[in-house]
């Protein structure tokens, strides 16, 4: 069962357990829907062999280095991208897919972590040739970046458990205090909804900004915010592990279109084509499905990677 289905039904039980490891140490694991996910630094990840025809298309400078630097945001939460029990090794579905893509391209993956804002600065500078960090394709971002899709994008409103408030559309957030992470497409959607409500004479949404999951969950628990709008997989994960919150509405991250998450490169760098081909190869070989299923995200699978598809539209 996927985390998306868990969020919708809120019926699956998830618990953190400790199991014995070599040398008597313990390692936390997440058990959900019959699946066990290792949270330790030794991930024993699914791997992929180099495909010569695809690797040959990687820009020469990167091929010569033998390394693919892949950036991700430290503010992303489980099961997308987070730190292992050693507090330094990035793990999650995003890192697993990054390692697979690098393997097909014949490169050694180097996973880097930074803030959401610096992730794009590093793409601009070339410090990170590639980013996998739950980045949604938008028309504005397409002006500066190239995209190769690899997951569907679903957003969720998460609130305290036991309430009657549900979000089915823009009018349901009028006058509410809702948190988002700044610079994200969910911020854009929430701000657009608030403006549309004001144009109808409804009260504006009081938008609050938090960059770290721990901060917005503390704010939610204390009542300083009424809900948080973020990636559905992270909300579903938190709902089932905390037992204190619930998902009160889900929406496509693309707004009026089907939202899609994509590997992101600097525009015109020449890397997006081999990355898209690598994703397609991983889909065909089953490695892609194996990783998504490992993290309970099979419902977010795509049939093929698209380069620069229609994205979240501009406003104004």
Structural description of this entry:
The protein is an alpha/beta fold. It has helices spanning 3-9, 52-55, 60-65, 93-104, 116-125, 185-199, 213-222, 232-242, 272-285, 287-294; strands at residues 14-20, 26-32, 35-38, 67-73, 82-83, 90-91, 108-114, 130-131, 145-152, 154-160, 177-180, 206-209, 227-231, 245-252, 260-266. It has a 5-stranded mixed β-sheet, with helices on both faces. A hairpin with a 2-residue loop joins β2 (26-32) and β3 (35-38). It is globular, with a radius of gyration of 19 Å. It starts with a helix and ends in a 22-residue tail after the last helix.
Largest sheet composition = 5 strands, mixed
What is the overall silhouette? globular
Total strand segments: 15
Order of helices and strands: HEEEHHEEEHEHEEEEHEHEHEEHH
| Mean residue pLDDT | 87
List the helices and strands and how they pair.
Layout: H1 3-9, E1 14-20, E2 26-32, E3 35-38, H2 52-55, H3 60-65, E4 67-73, E5 82-83, E6 90-91, H4 93-104, E7 108-114, H5 116-125, E8 130-131, E9 145-152, E10 154-160, E11 177-180, H6 185-199, E12 206-209, H7 213-222, E13 227-231, H8 232-242, E14 245-252, E15 260-266, H9 272-285, H10 287-294
Parallel strand pairs: 4-7, 4-8, 11-12, 11-13
Antiparallel strand pairs: 1-2, 2-3, 5-6, 9-15, 10-13, 10-14
Helix pairs in contact: 1-8, 4-9, 4-10
């Amino acid at each position: 069962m996927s985390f998306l289905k868990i969020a919708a039904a809120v019926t699956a039980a998830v618990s953190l357990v400790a199991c014995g490891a070599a040398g008597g140490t313990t390692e936390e694991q997440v058990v959900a829907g019959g699946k066990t996910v290792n949270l330790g630094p030794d991930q024993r990840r699914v791997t992929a062999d180099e495909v010569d025809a695809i690797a040959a298309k990687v820009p020469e400078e990167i091929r010569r280095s033998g390394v693919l630097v892949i950036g991700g945001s430290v503010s992303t939460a489980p099961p997308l991208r987070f730190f292992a029990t050693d507090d330094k090794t990035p793990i999650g579905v995003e890192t697993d897919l990054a390692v697979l893509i690098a393997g097909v391209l014949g490169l050694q993956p180097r996973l880097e972590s930074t803030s959401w804002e610096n992730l794009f600065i590093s793409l601009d500078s070339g410090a990170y040739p590639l980013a996998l960090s739950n980045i949604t394709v938008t028309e504005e971002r397409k002006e500066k970046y190239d995209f190769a899709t690899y997951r569907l994008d679903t957003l969720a409103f998460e609130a305290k458990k036991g309430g009657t408030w549900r979000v089915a559309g823009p009018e349901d957030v009028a006058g509410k205090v809702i948190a988002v992470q700044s610079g994200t497409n969910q911020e854009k959607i929430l701000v657009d909804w608030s403006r549309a409500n004001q144009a109808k004479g409804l009260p504006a949404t009081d938008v609050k900004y938090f960059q770290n999951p721990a901060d917005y969950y503390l704010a939610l628990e204390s009542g300083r915010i009424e809900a948080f709008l973020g990636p559905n997989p992270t909300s579903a994960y938190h709902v089932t592990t905390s037992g204190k919150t619930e998902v009160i509405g889900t929406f496509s991250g693309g707004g009026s279109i089907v939202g899609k998450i994509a590997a992101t490169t600097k525009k015109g760098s020449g890397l997006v084509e081999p990355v898209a081909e690598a994703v397609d190869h991983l889909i065909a070989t089953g490695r892609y499905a194996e990783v998504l299923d490992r993290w309970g995200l099979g419902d977010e699978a795509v049939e093929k990677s698209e380069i620069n598809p229609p994205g979240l539209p501009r406003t104004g």
